[in-house]
Structure formats: structure tokens, C-alpha cells
Amino acid sequence: MVKLLSHLVNKNRRGALEISFGWLFAIVAGAVIIFLAIYISSKVINSSQETVSAETGKEIEILLNPLETSFESSQMTSMSIPADTRINNICDYSGTFGKQGIRLDQKSFGKWVETSTNVFFTNKYIFSDGIIEGKRFYIFSKPFSFPFKVADLIYLIPSTKQYCFKDAPSEVSEEILKFNNNIFAISNCSVDSIDVCFHSSGCDINVNLNSGTVTKNNTKLYYSGIGEDDSLMYAAIFSDKTTYECQIKRLMLRLKKINELYREKALFVEKAGCDEIIIPYLNEFNEVISSFSNSLNLGEVAAKGEEVENINKAGECLTW
């Protein structure tokens, strides 16, 4: 009898062990399958996001091309993206002209999916905060001349923001109101608008027209223009310091190359019999541009550029 009970107990123990092991195997196998499914899905999603980022970046480049114009006027358009999107403004001032890059991160299942696909262009100059997000964005463009045309500056603004221009000069008010949209206002501003003051202080952004400075986030940005060109003022208003300073350096690289081309043209015209008095001034202008280090030097470059512009207008043959 004792032997029989012992046999049954051992049998029950072996059965219990077999059942426990089966369940354990099923749990482990299931966990591995779920892990692989999640891993493969994440790879597929990331790959898809990389493709979307690259394609959308190219679409943005195509959208920006019509805004590049030789006309001395500002333009605006808008773009919509189906998903919530973060646009990362990437600026690199190394090399001959530097590079403008953008990277798009999009929301997927309620979470931001970061991509590693950067789209670069050498002839674009986008001024914005380092990271902006939304589904709809406005693209505001103005030509930049210093004194000859250098490039078209592009300001990228999410539709969720509104800039309230207080006591702005008439030319600024007229320019922003002609676009008839909700991101610019001079009155009836929303409670959470970004206040831009021209003749007072204490606003989110303070513009000093006399000193050529824009103060925001306790940081002062310097701008300058020749004649009525105020494109750098807008660039300072809509950009963070890092983006602004980087893009200014890129613009100075381009300015130097264009100045050298005009100097070559002046030399050629002089050989053809035209008395070109502008050549030494272009040489001096080139030296001033070469010594540029940050936006604090813009006033010096603008002063020499204005001198070059006056010499060009008074010359026998116009260089530009």
C-alpha cells in the first residue's frame, strides 16, 4: 500500500513538472514571437518614416523654387502635411557656400518618430527656429541685396503661431497686411500671440530700428540693410540665434563669390574700353567681407557695400 501511494505521488509530480514546462515554453516562445513582431514592425515603420521624410523634403524644395525671383518684392505661400510634423532646420556654413538642410520627424501612433534622413540644398536660406512643428506652415520670402542681389531669404513659420507687430513702420505694416492671413497682425491680436515691438520694450521681440538690433529671449541679434532692404530684420525676428548666425555666414560666403564675379566683369569691361573706377572698391569690399565673423560685423559690410553701390551708379558703365 505504501509503495502504491509513493508511485502515484511520483507520477503526479512528473505530470505537474511536464505541465509547468509546457506552459513555460509557450510563454517564452510567445514572448520571442511578440518581440520579433514589434522589432520587425518598428523597422518597417522607421524605414517608411525615412522614405516619407526624404520625399517630403524634396517636395518642400520644389515648393520653395517658385519663391526665388528676381523681382524686388516679397511673396508668401503655404504648405500642408497630413501628419503632425517637426521640421528641423539644419545649417552648415562649411565649404564654398555651406548647406541648408531639413529633417522631418513625424508622429506615428501618438509618438514622435525621429528619422536620420537629411535633405540638403546649397542655394536655399531658411530662417526659422531650430525646430518647428505642425501640419500647416507658411513660407514668406524676400530678396536680399547687399548691394547687388545675393539670394532670396525664406522664413518658415508654423500656422499655430501669430506675430503681432505693434507700432510697426508703415512699410512693414503694409507689407505684412497684404498677405491677409492669421499669422501676421497689427491689431486684434490673439492672447497668446508673439508680440513684436518697434517703439517700445517689454515685448516678446523688440526691434530697434536705430541700432539695427532684434532682442528676443534675452539675446540680441544684429541686422543691417542697404537702402530699403529689410530682409535681415525679418530673418532676425523669425529665427533663433544659432540658425540666424549660421545663415548669415552662408550669405556672406555667397556675397563674396558674387562680388568676385562682378570684379572679373569690371576687369573685362575695362579691357573693352570702359573706364571702370569701381575695381579698387570691389577689392576693398572683398576684404571687408573676408573679415566677417558674426552679425555684429554686418554694419561694416553694409557701409562698404553702400559705398560700392554709389560708385557703381556714378560709373561710366554699370557693373550690375
Q: Would you write up a description of this structure?
A:
The longest helix has 63 residues. The N and C termini lie far apart (117 Å). The protein is globular. About 3% of the residues have low confidence. It has a domain of 65 residues. It is 43% helix and 26% strand. It contains six helices and 13 strands. The chain is an alpha/beta fold. Helix 4 packs antiparallel against helix 5 and helix 5 packs antiparallel against helix 6.
The average pLDDT score comes to 84
Q: Total number of helical segments?
A: 6
Multimeric state of these chains? single chain
- Work out the helicity level: 40-55%
Quick one: overall form? globular
Main pleated-sheet profile = 7 strands, mixed
- Indicate the proportion of strand residues: 25-35%
- Rg, Cα atoms, Å: 30 Å
Number of strands: 13
How would you classify the helix and strand content by structural class? alpha/beta
Low-pLDDT windows of residues: 39-47
N-end to C-end Cα span? 117 Å
Instruction: Please write the string of helix (H) and strand (E) elements.
Output: HEEEEEEEEHEEEEEHHHH
